[in-house]
Structures are given as structure tokens and as C-alpha cells.
């Protein structure tokens, strides 16, 4: 198990304090005054920079710059390549320079490494698409969401209490970006989690919050004998059903429609309960409530497997940054009261609900943690 530190580095202490201490990027003020005032301007204009980079990507200017990577491209070349006016190309390129996306040498523009990632890195593209299509307009309502505890930003799409029953009905780009974002992170972790989960030889898995059935399908393909039951809202199960039938696995994967916050009892046949990126959809009190409900329903010998993203368990600062930003999507759009938690919060909820952690794995996929839990005998 790793201590919960982000991007830690060991600092050698000189003088009378001999030895090492561990420093993380979040435990001190990192910038001098000039760096700080510069960073503050990046924040003050962040939405404008974001939209400018979006335009650089969508107009094909980033791609054109990549094509001309060897010698760089002049303004005229980029005007010709993009079909935009010199004015339009000029304002975007200037913002690209100030945003560190491009550099200009001998009147020729080239992509910086940041520009290359913005254009080609699947994770960056997925995050940008999600920010633009799902979150951007809604985030204007964050202050209201923070004050009210309600997902005030969701009103830009319609009138729902939370985003979950609305997922199938969001506008195309918002819906596709949401699923792409969700699956991008969980898919990679699924591959590594599969071996760990099947080490326990489950015969029947409950996939709580099973969404489109991706994990259930992976399990059913992995083990020809395993059965999987999806527990999710009825609207989600309808989406999952199509995928399961298309794969011809309806004989071993079924669904149990439930609003887990309203249920008083859950089915109790599974020997393994699986929850991936599920508990982050709920507040701390709701998590304890859900865990107690599962504890009451599950067989005493069953295991509970929780796969989550914890911001304190990340190896890279960019990952912690992304998770803390995504928490505000939960605040403003998803339900107003949930988030990606610090791992100690989840461990506290598990203790309060009468579970202990039997095994723990960090760094699955892009930074998921898998907790294998058992019910305490006296719970
Ligand atoms: C973020 S998705 C997780 C998807 C999937 N497990 C994964 O790892 O990619 C959360 C899932 O929880 C479901 N969900 C949210 N609130 C729920 C509730 N009150 N009862 C049952 N399911 C719920 C949603 O419908 C959605 O499928």
C-alpha cells in the first residue's frame, strides 16, 4: 500500500535537521510573486484560453501546424490551410503563443509539446470534449450549485433532479462526451481489475451502477461460467440491455432495476458485489447508507469490490488536478453533493458501515484504486 501523497519528492535537509522529509505539491506555496501574478492571470482568462485552444483544434490549425512541424508555418500558410481570414488566424495564434501551445521563431509557428498533447493525446482530447460539450455552459451556475447543494447547471439541458436519469436524453454531443469520458477512465482500469477480481473466483457478480454493461460484458467474456446482474436505474438498464443482447450474453447477464437511495432491500445471491465509479455519485451520508444496505443484503461470505478514483492516491499532479476539477462537474451538473473523494473519507464510510478492507490495489489504469472489502462479523 502506498501513502496518500501526490507527486511527492524527497527533500534532503541540510544543517542541524539531518535526514529527508517528503514534500508534496500541495503542502506549501510553490510560486514566487512574479510567478504567482502570472498564474493568477492564466486563471482569470482560463475560459477564454480554453475556447481559443478549442478553436485552434477544431479549425484544423493545430493539425496544420503538426503537418508543418519540420520547418514551421507562416501566417499566410496557415490562412491558406485553414480557409480562415488572416484576422481570425492571427488572434488564435497569438493566444496560442501566450497559452504555451505554440512558439514563433523566424516568423514561423510551431507546436510546443503542449500543442502536440492537445492535438493527439486521447486523454486530453477526452477531457476537453467533456469540458466543452457536457460542462462548459453549465459551469456558469457553479456558485448557485455550491450555495444550494443542487446541480444548478443541469438546467442548461433540462429539468431533472440529477443527471443520471437524464443520461440517455442529453443532447448528442453532451451525451457522447459524457460516456466517452466515463468509459475512457474505467475501461483501462477494467483490464487490470479483471485478473484481480477473478482471483476470488466469483460465480455471481452484482455490478452496482453497471451503466451500459461494459464491465458485465468483460466479466462474461472472461469467464464462461460467471453470471452478472446489473443493479441500476431502470433508464440505464434499458440502455445496457441493447448492448447485452447484441453480444448474445443475455443468458448470463440480467438486470435488477433499482434506485439505490430508495430501496430497502437488495437481492442477496451474489458472492461478489462490484461498484466502479459508483460511490463518487453520492454524498458521504448516502455512501454510508448504501454500504449499510449492501451489508444487510449480502451473504456473510461475499466480498464487496470498490473501484474508485481518489485524488490523494495519484502519482501525478495533473491527475489530482483533473479529479478535483471533475468533482465540480458532480457539484454543478451531476447531483450537487458528490465528488471524487480523498481515500480516507471512503475508508471512514466503510468503517461506519461495518466493513473492513481485506486487499487494496493502487494505480490500476490511469489511477484507480481497488478496495476488496468484507463485512465485519459483528456488523
Ligand atoms: C459514473 S456511472 C458508473 C459507470 C460504470 N460503473 C463505470 O465504471 O464506468 C454511475 C452509474 O450509477 C448509476 N446510478 C446513479 N444514481 C443511482 C441510483 N440512485 N440508483 C441506482 N443507480 C444509480 C447511474 O445510472 C450510472 O450508471
From TrEMBL:
InterPro entries: BVU_1015-like_N (IPR049480), COMT-like (IPR016461), COMT_C (IPR001077), SAM-dependent_MTases_sf (IPR029063), WH-like_DNA-bd_sf (IPR036388), WH_DNA-bd_sf (IPR036390). One of its GO terms (biological process) is methylation. Keywords: Methyltransferase, S-adenosyl-L-methionine, Transferase. Residues 39-109 form the BVU-1015-like N-terminal dimerisation-like domain. Residues 201-341 form the O-methyltransferase C-terminal domain. It comes from the Bacteria. This is Methyltransferase domain-containing protein. It comes from Microvirgula aerodenitrificans. The lineage of its organism: Bacteria, Pseudomonadati, Pseudomonadota, Betaproteobacteria, Neisseriales. GO terms for molecular function: O-methyltransferase activity.
